[in-house]
Amino acid sequence: MGMNRYTPSFAVVCITYGSSIAQTCAPSAWRLLSATSPGPRHSHQLVYDSTRGTVVLYGGAFGVFPDYTELEDTLDLFGNAWVARPIPSPCPKRWEYGWTFDQARGVMVLNGGASFVGIPGNPNNHHIGGTYELNGNAWTLKTFGGPDARHGTMLAYDTRRNRVVLFGGKHDVVGTWEWDGQRWTAMNPPSPVPPPRAFGGFAFDERRGKTVLFGGADNSFNAIGDVWEWDGAGWVQITSPTPPPARRGHIMVYDSFRQVCVVFGGTGPTGYTNQIWEYDGTSWIQRIVAGTAPVGRDLFGFAYDRGRNRFVLAGGQKINGQHSDTWELRGDPYVQTPPTAVSVRAGESAELSVETSGATPRTLRWRRGGADLADDGRVSGSATEHLAMTNCGPSDAGLYDVVITTSCGTFSTFPVRFDVVCPSDFNSDGGVDGGDVDAFYASWAAGGSQADFNGDGGIDGSDVHDFFQRWEAGC
Length: 475
Description:
The chain is mainly beta.
């Protein structure tokens, strides 16, 4: 099959919500995070890694067809800046691949793509196969079996059945496939099934338990405008309500806060667009966001950050080139500054903070290990942006997050670790016993800095006194 130039398309984000709140829970504003990072690229994708609380970008290409420079870097969006993730054995470079995040197993799943260079198993073939997974530290080749080598394919993760669903790809490849983490299964559903396509919007609607497909490009790169839903057994075409104008190259992601499907940008009848559309399973609504917005584009990366209630947009294709920028589309409410990890010594006080913004009235609740906290004589601010604790002990250690609730829904920040260091656990083995006494005396006799137990700048008998007082108390 010959390689075709893929021209302008656009992206779909899946967010599910009820129509009754649709007009009061919209995203509030676009904000440019960087005009130059992650650098020029297109034909890549983004996913939100909920095990690490970061948006992840992989690969893509830059240049004008057929003079592409292919990429194999993996980047994390920590806060508002891209940081290269050092991975000793990266996934072989590629573009126009399918990618999604498996929440149950905590891995990113990639299938197929395109490369002029080829990879082992697909030498000298720009349609490359293979299923790879990224666990945060390493890429693993899982299999070259399953779907035929393809690019422009669509992947989504079904959270109810813990399956990755695959559909479509360039050059009329057919079939609906599912991946369970070990093997691909050809589903062979009964008719009707969606016509072949590539670069469609594809995401799992967690509220309704449906994988939604919108639009895409046929084999002649004509934009398609139909809507289909997959429930794990069969496809159903959704003929009402009327969807947005036909388009291709869009990406669909799921907004778990408002529970709706959102479409941004791509290529439609009038070229590149930067429109935002939302679909709740009942109706389509075009969203108008005030202020400066990114220009229309296709083949870009787009993901929903569940821990901050925002969408992240990076790069993408334009006429005779590509974009280099990164934008965020803020939800309402929005987590402007997430909590950060804290470590204190036993007996000390501590504070954890979060900064939120937005017009929507909201309530906050801090949690430890998923359990709500409440104010008492030692804990205060459990329903505010600033949680304070005095006389911290080992029982206070754990993972802390903030649950944010409005009339539109509920979401939580990414959990961060709060550690309480036990000074009498001198050898840091997790227990308080004779081994700590031996370790302290060895350090004290040698004049080690750690033996200044009371922190007064000297190593003397007062340190021995204070150490044993703390040791006898247990921590």
